[in-house]
């Protein structure tokens, strides 16, 4: 079973040379620490930054340099800072190749709920709706089950939706899964020490298992 850092490491393998990538709040922000050194990637933060680097070391934080989740970050050489209007213009114009988001629920047809739990105070949707409406490649980084042990990969989302039919791939502490165009979670990889049966028990939505499922390589 993976921790949050392990999920981020596995997702970093999905980032390709030349990509512009938006990292959402939560686990996705950790991906910045694990981008392979042999590829050229530009990380975009929707609050107005191109060229986001890994988290700073303790004592080297700049409170004026933050990501969308208000965490202190670093800027790489050649980075650019601008207003959020220009940042969202990039997103809406589909200039971002890959969006990595957290989620509270994902349905078997690729719907995502990641911004509101009814009855709880929230700051707002932020950039999530723009990202899911504009992105052509969305990977979700999330926990497979909630604190009560209930699946978060469902036949249908129960929480307010952020977007519909938009998630392409999911990486959890248990597995890597594709969301198929005609519905269903196709199991691609198992986390180290996790069995297919473990994943079946933790997945409420339609799970598709074909042949031998390899163990994840981090």
Describe the structure.
The chain has 218 residues and is of the alpha/beta class. Helices cover 15% and strands 23% of the residues. The chain has a single domain, classed as Glutaconate Coenzyme A-transferase (3-Layer(aba) Sandwich), CATH 3.40.1080. The protein contains 4 helices and 13 strands. The chain is globular. The mean pLDDT is 94.
Helix-strand blueprint:
Layout: H1 4-12, E1 20-23, E2 42-45, E3 49-52, E4 75-81, H2 84-92, E5 98-102, E6 105-107, E7 112-113, H3 128-134, E8 138-141, E9 153-154, E10 169-171, E11 175-179, E12 185-190, H4 196-202, E13 207-208
Parallel strand pairs: 1-2, 1-5, 5-8, 6-9, 8-10, 12-13
Antiparallel strand pairs: 2-3, 3-4, 6-7, 10-11, 11-12
Primary descriptors:
alpha/beta; single chain; Glutaconate Coenzyme A-transferase; 218 residues; 15% helix
CATH architecture: 3-Layer(aba) Sandwich
Q: Distance between the terminal alpha carbons, to the nearest Å?
A: 12 Å
Give the strand order of the largest sheet, numbering strands 1, 2, ... along the chain: 4-3-2-1-5-8-10-11-12-13
CATH superfamily: Glutaconate Coenzyme A-transferase
Which residue ranges are poorly predicted, with pLDDT under 50 across at least 5 consecutive positions? none
- Tell me the fraction of residues in β-strands, as a range: 15-25%
Overall strand count:
13
Assign the CATH topology.
Glutaconate Coenzyme A-transferase
Q: In the residues, how many domains can be counted?
A: 1
Query: What's the helix-strand series?
Result: HEEEEHEEEHEEEEEHE
Shape: globular
Give the helix/strand class. Answer: alpha/beta
Number of helices: 4
Largest sheet entry: 10 strands, mixed
Q: Identify the CATH class.
A: Alpha Beta
Question: From the alpha-carbon coordinates, what is the Rg to the nearest angstrom?
Answer: 17 Å
| Helix-residue proportion | 10-25%
């Amino acid at each position: 079973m993976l921790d949050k850092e392990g999920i981020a490491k596995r997702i970093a393998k999905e980032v390709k040379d030349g990509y512009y990538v938006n990292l959402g709040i939560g686990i996705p922000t950790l991906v910045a620490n694990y981008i392979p050194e042999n590829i050229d990637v530009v990380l975009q933060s929707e609050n107005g930054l191109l060229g986001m680097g890994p988290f700073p070391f303790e004592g080297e934080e700049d409170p004026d340099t933050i990501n969308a989740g208000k965490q202190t970050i670093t800027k790489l050489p050649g980075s650019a800072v601008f207003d959020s209007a220009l940042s969202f213009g990039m997103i809406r114009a589909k200039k971002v190749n890959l969006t990595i988001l957290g989620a509270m629920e994902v349905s078997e047809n690729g719907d995502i709920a990641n911004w509101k739990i009814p009855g709880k105070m929230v700051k707002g949707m932020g950039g999530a709706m723009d990202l899911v409406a504009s992105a052509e490649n969305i990977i979700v980084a999330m926990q497979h089950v909630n604190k009560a042990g209930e699946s978060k990969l469902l036949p249908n989302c129960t929480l307010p939706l952020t977007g519909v039919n938009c998630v392409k791939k999911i990486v959890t502490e248990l597995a890597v899964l594709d969301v198929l165009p005609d519905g269903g979670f196709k199991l691609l990889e198992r986390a180290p020490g996790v069995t297919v049966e473990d994943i079946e028990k933790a997945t409420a939505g339609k799970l598709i298992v074909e042949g031998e499922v390899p163990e994840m390589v981090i």
